[in-house]
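Table S2 (text version). Query chain:
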Amino acid sequence: MDLASNIAELQERIGAACARAGRVAGSVTLMAVSKTHPPAAVAEAAAAGLRVFGESKIQEARLKIPQCPGHLRWHFIGHLQSNKCREAVELFSMIQGVDSLALAREINKRADQAAKTMPVLLEVNVAGEASKFGYQPEALLAEWAELNALSRLEIHGLMTIPPYATDPEKARPHFRRLRELKGRCEELLGAPLPQLSMGMSGDFEVAIEEGATIVRIGTALFGKRQYAAAKAWD
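Corresponding structure-token output:
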């Protein structure tokens, strides 16, 4: 596996998708989803120019992050349990996937204790899948004022994971719906929300065409997840 080549190919595809959408290539951040992959792989990706990495388990991140280059930015991208909020606030520069007012309040409380402002993205279950976490769009709008009033949270935007499909075009309506919802949130806020985190290895080009600013790439970058090796983190 040649990470530098994979990164170059991904950046080329990101640039082409941006060109199709009339966007500047630099408007999209390639986040390396490093869950289950060792610090050595992170260091190699960092040496090739990547700066933003995503982890989805607190226990893995707790052990891995200190072994990685210190200049990297880490985003939590999994489902966060309330009892892990303190560590999430300590370890990460952004928490993606805030999916309830109760969780937002707990993050706010832990950020206040740490005298820290916590950037977050709000997770939206745009397809209404029973098996997935995330706000229903109307519920998010109904709780927007309370979320925005939490003084230690900075709401930077929205994120979603659409239903799995082998055809990336099937994800397009879900990405478009999230972009439209962001517009409604911006109207309530009276200011722009800079981030839309959507799109993974199989559908990131469609996501970019629909407005993604962060794409979360794991398999297309690192290859298959290293589940056996990841047991060490547990």
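Notes on Table S2: The mean pLDDT is 95. The radius of gyration is 17 Å.
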